[in-house]
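batch job 7 of whatever, protein = tRNA uridine(34) hydroxylase
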Amino acid sequence: MRRAQGGARGRRVTDDKTNLPIRIAALYQFARFDDPAAIKPDLLGAMEKAGVRGTLLLAREGINGTMAGSDEGIEAVLDHVRTLPGCAEIEVKESRAAAMPFHRTKVRLKKEIVTMGQPDLDPLAGVGTYVAPDDWNTLISNPETILIDTRNDYEVQIGTFKGAIDPETKSFREFPEWFRAKRAEIEAQGGAPKIAMFCTGGIRCEKSTAFARAEGVKEVYHLKGGILNYLEHVPEDESLWHGECFVFDERVSVGHGLRLGDHTLCRACRRPLSAEDMGHEHYEEGISCHRCWDERTDEQRARYAERQRQEMLAEARGLEHVGRREEADTDG
């Protein structure tokens, strides 16, 4: 049974950059934190005091996350983040929204700020060569360059660069095994590979290129600032990007100029859905889509249905449903 998309769609942010009250800041920094747990209380306190929502991840390798709030609130938290070891020059990707895209304020302790299953890998010791968006087209148009999309399969499905290899991974944790198998295949054909990698905001690229270098690959490049930086700075008529880019917040997807995309989110599996996907017989708002139908039990779908009912009741009353599923960890 298919149910029309309603309330969830109405909660999406807009791409109008003018006079929007909510400032969204996506950030990450590989740094060396000897005791992440000691950093957590003050960071969480700074977010709560500033009225900022979102999730920030802390690990011994650094910080990663996305948060949203007023201009003053975001600036206050960023001031605090810049006092952390190695974070004085942290780069922040910003956008604006008409409504708050997050529902909680969290600081989580992790083994890795982006999970690759390689906790001993040190990105600070040897990442690949950064390539600015303006120079990216030249690099990936070179027939000797092997271009790899390091994102998950559901992200690649809605957009990628022309000629990119899709590892078809369901999580970034699968990337090392895929890379080792693919590298052997490439080298069996002869020649040393020149590899270029990209991801949403740059963090997975830094780790994947560091991994490739640790595996002995010498020529490794990655897109500085990720796809979002490219879409923001490269004109659409010069772009080699096709489709939209999935983002880990209520915008769901963006296109050239970081304009709001046409995808929405399945609240059961958190994969992006096109208008065509929402016309599938297994799509039911808040409960299922054709991609997760076989992955969930009837019992799970019943729980999702009750959650959706409570959300719609809360929305009708102008309230925030506290039981709504948490947003996914930032994975840029």
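notes: The first helix runs from residue 7 to 10.
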